[in-house]
Structures are given as structure tokens and as C-alpha cells.
Amino acid sequence: MKMPHLLSAWALTISSLLVFPVSQSYAAAPQVKTAAPGFYRTMLGDFEITTLSDGTVQLPVDTLLTNTSIDKTRKALQTYHQHSPLDTSVNGYLINTGSKLVLIDTGAGTLFGPTLGKLRANLKAAGYTPEQVDEIYITHMHADHVGGLMDGDKIAFPNAIVRADQHDVDYWLSQANMDKAPADKKGFFQGAMASINPYIQSGHFKAFEGMTELLPGIKAIPAHGHTAGHSMYQIESKGQTLMLWGDLMHVAAVQFENPSVTIQFDSDSKAAAKARLAAYADAAQRGYLIGAAHLSFPALGYLRKQGKAYAWIPVNYVPTQP
Question: Can you tell me the distance from the alpha carbon of 229 to that of 138, in angstroms, rounded to the nearest whole number?
Fold first, then answer.
């Protein structure tokens, strides 16, 4: 009958041995505040596709978007629990065909501030090196697509041939065009020249014009308007298709609902809107995979027609590809 007293004594002895109070919390470790390396991999037929994040940049999209109003833009963003300035992804795409390693766009490098310029680090995290890249296809020559071509004053991809549409070459690499551009637009030209000219000078640049097969399974598709030579890239393997849109669109929460909305960065907003409408309709009708520079990372998915608007369907996350 003395058992309860023995149990009480045992409990008292154990509690006296504890060197920390029972109520102490261990959640006071420093917050890390960073995510995993930004790459996502999937297969397209026999081709390996890796989305590479260059980071995100905050853009005041409520004032940048045109052919709409600030209030409409803010309302559309709120529907998706977003706001302006909007953390906007900048993405590149790495295609391993089995015989060639091709990079579509290179991110901003050092041309857009400290939140971007992470593409090469994520390329390495994905298991590749810049020296392994055989060819680089540029959708257009804005700084957030070509800045990553350089590593300081050195070529970042020493073995790669860089390709872009001749219309962008003629416009963005023209000293005469830069001289007559407004002061707030000259930086676009300077970024393009600083990034592309070293490859031209080293014999590592080759322009194309219009629809062009660049490699078996990879074709440039003109989608002019955002810039004079803006191009999409069609990737095909074993009957599967991926269309890489570049800057065909910028703000998913707004421009899928209303494709007529344009942006101040467009060189020809009417042509850009026309190209976007055509691309949306084709993607929804044919049901192929889509990627774009400013879709939220990992920036791969499908488009579905929804009345006069379109609905974005992100790919289902799969951590390991067969």
C-alpha cells in the first residue's frame, strides 16, 4: 500500500535531475529566410528541361502595365492575394538534348540589382557548369535576359555560341539608336552592348532572322512587338512540345484574364498584344507545355481557354524525373 508514495518519490527524484525547465522553448534559432536552390527539372520526350531561377525583382506593375487602369490592375492582383510592387520571377531554361546543352536567356547578371543574378549559381546547383553550355538563345536583348552573359568583365559562358534575332541586333546594338534614345532608355542599349558585344568580338555570336531551326528539335518563332526581334523558342521531342515565351507576358494575374493589357517595356505595344493573343490561342488549342521568363518559378504549365480569358495551370510538382 506504500506504492503511491514510492511513485511520488520517484517522480520527484527524476524532476530534480532535469537541468532545464519543462516550459523552455527551442524555437529561438535564427530564421534562415532563404529557399532551396532555384532549379526545377522535367523531361520532354528525350530532352531534359531545367528551369533556372535568376531570382525575383519587385516591379511596380500597377503603374507599368498599360491599356488598363491602376485600379483594375490592383483589383486583379488582389484576387490572387498579390500586390504592387510585385515580386516578379526572372527565369531561364536549360535544354539538354543528349548531344547539346542549350540555355534560353541568361538572367540579369549584375544589371538589375542584388535580388537577381543567381542563374549561374543555380545552373551549378542543377549539376552543370557554364563551360558545358554549347549554345545560348536570347529571346530579346533586355538587360534581365542578357546581363548574365557576362561575369564582371569576362565572358560567363566561354564555349557557347550566342544567337538572337537580327532585328534585335540591329536595334539594340546601334550606337545611333542609343544616341537618339531618351535618357531614361539609354541603359537598355548599354546593357545589351556590354553583354552581347564581347561574344561578337570573340566570334561567338551568330544572328538568325525570323522562323529558324537552330538545332534538331529547337526552333526560333518570331513574336515581335515586345522588342523588334523578340522570339519564342519551340522545343520538340518524341511528339511533345514546350513553347518558351520569353517576355510575351509579364503579369499572370492580369494578362491571362485580359490579354490586351500591355506594358511600358514594349517597343510596339499593339504588335506585342497581337503576338500574345495568337500565342495564347495556340497554346490553349494544342495543349502543349509553356514556359515564360516572368511566370512565377518554376514557370512551367498549360493554358486553358475560359470564356474570353485564359486560365493558367501550373505543372504538378514531381521531385525526381525518371
Answer: 10
Closest C-alpha among 136, 187, 190 to residue 160:
136
What is residue 17's predicted lDDT score, i.e. its pLDDT?
42
Measured CA to CA, the distance from residue 124 to residue 13 in angstroms comes to 56
pLDDT band for 21, please (50, 70, 90 cuts): low
Whole-angstrom Cα distance, residue 46 to residue 122?
A: 22
Structure-block grid coordinates of residue 34: 532563404
Q: What is the CATH number of domain 34-314?
A: 3.60.15.10
Strand partners, 165: 208
Mean predicted lDDT score pLDDT of the chain: 92
Sketch the domain layout of the chain as residue ranges.
34-314
36 and 130 Cβ atoms separated by less than 8 Å: no
- Bridge-based pairing of strands 161-163 and 135-137 is parallel
pLDDT digits (tens, 9 = 90+) for 77-86: 999 999 999 9
Predicted pLDDT of residue 20: 46
| Nine cell digits for residue 232 | 519564342
Q: What CA–CA distance (Å, rounded) separates 104 from 92?
A: 6
72's grid cell: 483594375
Q: Closest Cα partner for 122 from 9, 39, 222, 219?
A: 39
Report the alpha-carbon distance of residue 271 to residue 267 in Å, rounded: 9
The whole-angstrom separation of Cα 211 and Cα 99 is: 23
The span from the CA of 116 to the CA of 139, in Å, is 18
